[in-house]
């Protein structure tokens, strides 16, 4: 049974990600509204509905791109639409057109993630673009997936095609999903290569980084308990040093000390090139990780390592104390 509580931004922002698989939570205000939390920290609103004898889970959108009130308001319309009898369309549709419809109507991502998915589709699924959807077979899918280098991206493209064909079935363009019978691509689960000893070595290397922006941003990955996308896009207007909060969320003591020492000469806490904020300094991070003796360490590994140890608390001061306790524990 899903854990039930009243959905609000503070609680959802601080829900810990599971170590594997996903967790499900349920809204008390709108009990039909639920949320997936994956091991990668992705949070997605969804509803369940038994449609034509089958249990169906319909994704509304990812949080926080889709806010709580929007998700609640969408529930009745989505359930009503799901219960409608499917329309059988006799007109054929090209895969390119179907993918455009799918991206517009079903994909809810931020602009960066949306563009990244579009590039992956253009690169890997191009052989299917000019084929009619109703004429694509399981063997066609196998050939396309088999030509993709890398099991991870091949697996994601297969999952995407399965979702696209489910959408085609809902739209009445096909009756069967040619991806359903294909075996799932097995992937080796990545082992995150960090422990307390390696963590302390990493911090020492970061502290010796010459570039002030990179040094502060990488330290904030440790002290901020948030994914890199949120850390790098921090704005000064969202920080309240009187109450030690960021967007209403408590900051650890180490984060407060770090941020107060930074120059406030633009709207971004960690400015990048041009007028934007720091985005994804992979090369700089790679050098840091290699110096620390952990060459395959990612920025996401650091967030996961710390967030798994953080105990959530509804009281802000208790939550801040828990953050400080985690930092004190790993930096010994």
Tell me, briefly, the overall form: globular
Major β-sheet, in short? 5 strands, mixed
Question: β content, as a range?
Answer: 5-15%
Reported CATH architecture of the largest domain: Orthogonal Bundle
> What's the CATH topology label of the largest domain?
hpI Integrase, Chain A
CA-CA gap between termini? 39 Å
SSE series: EHEEEEHHHHHHHHEEEHHHH
Helix count equals 13
- Which CATH C-level class of the largest domain is it? Mainly Alpha
Mean pLDDT: 88
Strand order of the largest sheet: 1-2-3-4-5
Query: What is the domain tally?
Result: 3
Q: Count of DSSP E strands? A: 8
Low-confidence stretches: none
How does the helix and strand content classify structurally? alpha+beta
Gyration radius over CA: 23 Å
Describe the protein in words.
There is one protein chain. The chain is of the alpha+beta class and 332 residues long. It has three domains: 3-82, Double Stranded RNA Binding Domain; 95-171; 196-330, hpI Integrase, Chain A, CATH 1.10.443. The protein is built from 13 helices and eight strands. The chain has helices spanning 9-13, 68-82, 95-106, 111-124, 138-146, 151-171, 196-207, 212-223, 228-232, 253-260, 282-291, 299-307, 316-330; strands spanning 3-5, 22-27, 34-38, 43-51, 54-63, 239-240, 245-246, 249-250. The protein has a five-stranded mixed β-sheet with strand order 1-2-3-4-5. A three-stranded antiparallel β-sheet has the order 6-7-8. Helix 1 (9-13) links the parallel strand 1 (3-5) and strand 2. Helix 8 packs antiparallel against helix 10 (253-260). The longest helix has 21 residues, at 151-171. It is globular. The protein starts with a strand and ends with a helix. The relative contact order is 0.09. The model has no long low-confidence stretch (mean pLDDT 88).
């Amino acid at each position: 049974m899903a854990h039930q509580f009243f959905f609000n931004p503070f609680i959802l922002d601080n829900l810990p990600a599971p170590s594997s698989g996903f967790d499900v939570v349920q809204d008390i205000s709108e009990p039909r509204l639920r949320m997936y939390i994956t091991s990668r920290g992705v949070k997605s609103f969804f509803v369940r509905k038994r449609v034509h004898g089958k249990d169906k889970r319909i994704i509304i959108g990812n949080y926080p791109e889709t806010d709580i009130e929007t998700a609640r308001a969408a529930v009745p319309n989505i359930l009503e639409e799901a219960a409608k009898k499917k329309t059988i369309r006799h007109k054929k549709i090209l895969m390119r057109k179907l993918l455009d419809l799918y991206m517009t109507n079903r994909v809810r991502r931020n602009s960066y993630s949306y563009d990244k998915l579009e590039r992956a589709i253009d690169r890997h699924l191009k052989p299917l673009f000019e084929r009619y959807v109703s004429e694509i077979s399981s063997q066609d899918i196998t050939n396309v997936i088999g030509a993709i280098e890398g099991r991870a991206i091949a697996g994601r493209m297969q999952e995407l095609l399965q979702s696209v064909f489910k959408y085609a079935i809902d739209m009445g363009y096909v009756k069967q999903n040619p991806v359903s019978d294909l075996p799932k691509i097995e992937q080796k689960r990545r082992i995150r290569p960090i422990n307390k000893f390696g963590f302390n070595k990493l911090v020492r290397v970061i502290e010796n980084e010459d570039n002030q922006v990179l040094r502060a941003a990488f330290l904030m990955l440790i002290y901020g308990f948030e994914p890199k996308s949120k850390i790098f896009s921090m704005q000064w207007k969202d920080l309240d040093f009187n109450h030690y909060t960021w967007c209403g969320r408590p900051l650890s003591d180490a984060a407060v000390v770090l941020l107060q020492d930074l120059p406030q000469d633009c709207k971004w806490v960690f400015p990048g090139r041009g007028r934007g904020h720091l985005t994804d300094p992979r090369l700089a991070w790679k050098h840091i990780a290699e110096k620390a003796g952990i060459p395959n360490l990612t920025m996401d590994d650091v967030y996961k390592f710390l967030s798994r140890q953080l105990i959530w608390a509804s009281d802000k001061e208790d939550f801040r104390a828990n953050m400080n306790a985690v930092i004190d524990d790993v930096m010994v």
